[in-house]
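Hey, resending since the last one bounced:
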Amino acid sequence: MLVIFLYAIDTTVVSTAMPTVVAKLGDIELYSWVFSIYMLTSALATPLFGKLSDLFGRRRLMLIGIGIFTLGSLLCGAAQSMMQLIFFRAAQGIGGGAMYALSFIIVGVVFPAERRARMQGLISGVWGISSVLGPLAGGLITEYWSWRWIFFINLPGALVATVLILFGFREADSDRRRPQVDLKGAVLLLLGLLFLFYALAPGGRGSQGPSLFSLALFVLALTTLTVFFILERSVEEPIIPPDLFRLHLFTMSTVISTLASMGIFGAISYLPLYVQGVLGGTASQAGAVLLVASLSWTGGSMMAGQGMNRLGYRAVCLIGMGLMALGYGLFIAVGMGRGMVAGLVEGVLIGMGMGMVNVTVLVAAQNGVPVDRIGIATAAIMLFRTFGGAFGVSVMGSVLFTHMYRRLVTLSASAGLDLSTAEIEKFANPQSLMEPAARLLIPDRLLSVLVDSLGQSIWYAFAAGFVLMLLGFGSSFFMDALTPATTTRPPERGRARS
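The structure tokens again:
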């Protein structure tokens, strides 16, 4: 749980400090890459370390992951430029992804099915608490200390985690096969995900919608990933074994996890924009909405363990996805008329729903695969969860920015504002409404147009999210109605042949 806490808090603590980091290091155009490169390498490390843990052992790989994360944190804190920070964040993401995946894998291996659900719920609860503490800690450390200490603060925790694993975790001996790492598959997966991240990155699309370049990158990413999955069929030790998708419980867990992640990351990304950009609220008020969502996430995670043991996977997924769909539906139904209430209700429902789904699909996936595939199955769920979140943010962002650009053109013309295309593209960036200094530079007549445009655009973005949540709710009907105790685990490959 300490390892999960370190990883989770590091994903949120940086966001609060980034304006100060940019002020010190410059190169504001590289702002988004500090986040995206961490997500990319973390997502890549998840299946790779999951597979390696099946071959080399969980304990050894966890220690390596903590070591990489610690070194990356130390280098990030010492960075002298944005390019250095991005490079070191990439290394930190590799270690963080390893720690994240292996924490869930170790729980899946060490604890029996009946206790596994409860432990996964506790771990998800730690994630929720970390997401609350991260922004608060980042702000305090940056304001009263130095932004460099948001990275250095990881070192004591990593040291304690290393000692606990060295002396407190003993892995049972097993007859492991000679390790064979699929390097060709790793390269293809790296390229495919890299192309996908470039296509989904903010710099890859203009305010009028997806650019031709980003669409070309998206096609290239799909092509590369398709080749990757085709080649994986003929590899003895694939990174993501295609035959796992023949197991219904694992497949449905992957689908539902991906769709749920689209919803939670979309809400986390754009609810603060609604509070600050449309309602004119403060960063503290936006943080309060996220705080409510995080606490609800923790509560949902706690309920999921007991829920799936009594009701089964399908029922808990239906309830969780139903809550997420209801949250989005209520938001678009009441519009902006209820102010902060809409944002708070959205946060409660989506957070609680995600907490329930998050734990359930992970336990279901682990119980639905052979014992020797628990590591890679867990890592695969983590991978699809990460990119589900990235894709959800991208879809909602594309809807938001495209509609805002068109809305600005219409409203500025009706208001008699003579704006050039360049000015419209500049003001179509909603970040200008969230920064007090930038907001003061906007003419009064234009400010009302911007706020109205942003409000309507966020409505359309949440409407797109509502459709995604309905897809998740519908998919939950196809989830197995088993409980952890009644799930029959498929035999290992060697035993299946004998």
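DSSP finds 19 helices and two strands in the chain.

Sorry for the duplicate.
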